[in-house]
Amino acid sequence: MSAIIKFDHVNKYYGKLHALKDINLEIEEGQVVTIIGSSGSGKSTLIRTINGLEPIQSGKLEVTGYDLADKKTDINKIRKNVGMVFQHFNLYQNKTVLENIMLAPRIVLHRDETENRQEAEKLLEMVGLSDKGDRYPKQLSGGQQQRVAIARSLAMKPKVILFDEPTSALDPEMIQDVLDVMKKVAESGITMLVVTHEMGFAREVSDRVIFFNQGEVLEDSNDPEAFFEHPKSERAQEFLSKIITL
């Protein structure tokens, strides 16, 4: 496998706050990587640098062959390849579910309209919402909206999909439906980076678990089961002891 994302001595600051401290990571194509850690540890900042939502101050960050630190890089070329699912859905409230999914492929990829609709309908079926295409986001539950957001991201056929705490804004009974869709996405072979507090998902689905603490990678394990059973660092042990793992 080849690395599709490379962090090389990446640093990120918010004023005097050193949010990402000398990050060195390589994410291989097809990997499902879960990033866990306490709130404010820098997890979301890390994945938001990958599609340029957060600029880095030093180091080198390559995504799908493009160098984000190079001012000549067209960020839109990266965003064609990198999908993102946010905590709060970010759907267009004035467009139907089907229109939300079809919009970016129409504008960015200039996809044929018939093909675009067919792809959108397939994705709605995949996320279990084939009967909701003509609804508007406000007519759906939070969990349903998040599944639409996943379908919308997949519609661009990205090489990488980023999930920024996709279940944290949902009612508990909605979470499992979203996690089940994410499992389907993982099975499709797409590269996934998932910031989450869902330890059961991290343990079951991940190829790799990264434990983040105070802007640093404290542990990076290619054996999620071993990490959850026997974390090496005291900080990871403390973190896992305070949460329920499945």
Automatic annotation (TrEMBL):
ATP-binding is among the record's keywords: yes
Record-linked InterPro entries: AAA+_ATPase, ABC_ATPase_HisP-typ, ABC_transporter-like_ATP-bd, ABC_transporter-like_CS, MetN_ABC_transporter-like, P-loop_NTPase
Domain ABC transporter residue range list: 5-239
An example molecular function term from Gene Ontology annotations: ATP hydrolysis activity
Keywords from the UniProt entry: ATP-binding, Nucleotide-binding, Transport
Family, similarity comment: Belongs to the ABC transporter superfamily.
Full protein name: Glutamine ABC transporter ATP-binding protein
Organism expressing this protein natively: Lactobacillus corticis
